[in-house]
What does this fold into?
Amino acid sequence: MHLPTAVNRLATRALVAPLLAPTLPRPVRRAGLDLIGAAIPAPRGTRRARGELGGVRTSVVAPPGALAPHRVLYLHGGGYVVGSSASHGPLLAGLAHATGTAVFAPHYRLAPEHPFPAALEDALAAWRALRATGRPAGHIAVAGDSAGGGLTTALLLRLRETGEDLPGAVGLISPWLDLSCTADALSRNAASDAMLDPSWLPSAAADYAPGTLADAPELRPLEADLSGLPPLHVVAGAEEILVDDADVLVERAERAGVRVRYQRTAGMWHAFPTFAGMLAEADDALRVLGAGLRADCTS
It folds into this structure.
């Protein structure tokens, strides 16, 4: 049941935003986000299972009925330090229904216990395991939100570097791509973003990529050569503090000849599709994203 946008905005500020603040202990933040995700009902008929991909514990979320031939690998957000398939349960369920197929969400290792490149190594292992099932790379979409969007782009760059086949399509929701935290929107949208405070980002970046690790090419996708990448489907809120990351990526990808579809939704905050099932704009965004991923991976 959808709630008014204003109610969802208030709930985001009151319930979700405090759990992203680094002032709380990490176990509290992680458990609290999981509880919020679990409290939002999934669409009728949603199926859930647990397994592993490449030794990485993985949750699988699927819609009812026969599955479309493609698959989705989803990398959740949370600043690389929090988040899980439980906190992102509503989004995963909405995306599974929108794509008509199973969505695989690896529980990649989190910082600061496991800094870069641990999460990338887990994403790569999950991708290779999904490929090892015999499914062509072009029939797999990779998607992620926030830090998971950054991890998705890092995975693309690593696959291209190693000469491996790339996915058929890529979905990025409010991707966090600039770990230097210098974009204008960090100040411009600080008051309008209901979920993120710009002062929280530097500590998360330092936890994930301490010291010279931040210079790794996979952590600087906005400086990378983007030519030859699969079709990009990008979603961002016009009022979020990371919207410049999405804007710049879209501009540079289009300039490099990459086919891009960009949903820049007015009045929305960071990673608003995580409120799938409660927020009409979230469901609308996932429907468009899911249809695009499905079309590119089954054509």
Summary: The longest strand covers residues 47-53. The first helix runs from residue 5 to 20.
